[in-house]
Amino acid sequence: MTESVPESGHIPAGESKIIPIEAESIKQRVEEVVQWVDSLEHKLTEVENFYSTIALSNSASRHVVGIRKVQQEAARREAVAAKRMHDLMRQFGTIFRQITQHKCAWPFMHPVDVESLGLDDYYEVIDEPMDFSTIKNQMDAKDGTGYKHVMQIYADMRLVFENAMKYNEEASDVYSMAKTLLQKFEEKWAHFLPKVLEEEKIREEEEKQSAMEALLAKEASHTKTTRDLSNEICNVNDELEKLRQVVVGRCRKITSEEKRNIGFALLKLSTDELQKVLGIVAQADPRFQTRAEEVTIEMDVLDEPTLWRLKFLVKDALENATNKKKEEKIKTGECRGTKQNNEVSNKRNAVNKLAERRTKRPCL
C-alpha cells in the first residue's frame, strides 16, 4: 500500500504527558536559561569588540600585568616625567634671566599700558598680549596653573617679540629692540633644544610602554572573561540537556506512522530548511556526513529527542509554506481585482465619450 504525502501544515504536534504545573516550571526555567544566554552574548560581544580593534604582537616574551599595577606604574612614570620637565624649566630660567636682563628688554618687562600710551587700536591688532612679568608669574606658579612644558614658555617668549614687531613700525626703536632680543633668544634656545628633544623622545617611549602594558592588562582581563564565558556556556549546555531530557521523558514516543510522515514531509522542504534538518541529525550523530553527495536519514535509528525536533521543524516549515501561499493568493486576487476594475473603468469612459459625441452631432 502506498503512503500519501501529508498535506502542508498537517503534521500533528503530538501529545504530551506533562501536567500544567510541571509545564509552567519547565517554561520558567527555560526563560531563566534564555536570560542567561543573553547575558553571555553581551559579554561575548564586548570581548569580540576588544579583539577586533587591536593587533597585538605574538612575541612570547611579553609580560602581562594586572590593571591596578599598570595604573600604579603609569602614575609613577608621570611623576618622574613631571620632575624631569620641572628641571628643564628650571634650566630654561637661566636663558630667561639673560634675556630679561638685556639692555633692550625694558619695553617688554610688563604688560603694555594701552591707556597711558593712547594705543586705542592695540587690542584690534594684538589678539594675545604677552610680557616677561606674566611669563615669570607662570613659571613660579605653585598652584598647578603654571606651565606644564618648557615649550609653552618658549612659545610665550616668542609671542612677546612677535607682538612688538607686529604692532610697531619696522623703523621704530621698539621693533628693533624686539628683533634683537628675538635673535639672541633663538641662539640660546638652539643650544638648549637638544635637551628638550631628548625629553620628548623619552616621553614618547614611556607613553608607548604605558599604552602597551595597559593593552596587555586589558587583554589578560578579557582572557579571563573568555575562560569564564566558556565555562558558563558549558553550564548552559548542561542545563539545556537536563531540560530536554525532562521534556522528552514526559513526551510519548514517536509512532512509526509519524516517522513515515516526517520522511515524506522532508521532500517538501526548501534547501535552507533541509540544511537545518541535516544539522539536527548531525548533532545527534557526529558521524553523520552532512556534506556527502547523497545523504540518507534513517528514521528508525534516530533517538526520540531528534525525532521530536524534526517533527516540530517540519510542522513549522509546512505551516509557514501554507501561510505564504495564502498570502500570495490574496495578493494575486487583489491585483486581478484591480486590473478588472481598471478595465471596467476604461470601458465606462469610452462609452461616456461616445455618448458625448452623439449628443454634440447636429441634426439633419
Characterization of the model:
Pfam families: BET, Bromodomain. With 364 residues, the chain is mainly alpha-helical. It has 10 helices and no strands. Helix 1 packs antiparallel against helix 7 and helix 9 packs antiparallel against helix 10. The protein starts with 19 loop residues before the first helix and ends with a helix. The N terminus and C terminus are likely disordered.
In what range is the share of β-strand residues? Answer: under 5%
Arithmetic mean pLDDT: 78
Q: From the alpha-carbon coordinates, what is the Rg to the nearest angstrom?
A: 43 Å
Helix amount = over 70%
Instruction: Report the oligomer.
Output: single chain
Order of helices and strands: HHHHHHHHHH
Domain Bromo: 100-175
Pfam families: BET (PF17035), Bromodomain (PF00439)
Keywords: Bromodomain, Transcription, Transcription regulation
Biased composition (Basic and acidic residues): 325-337
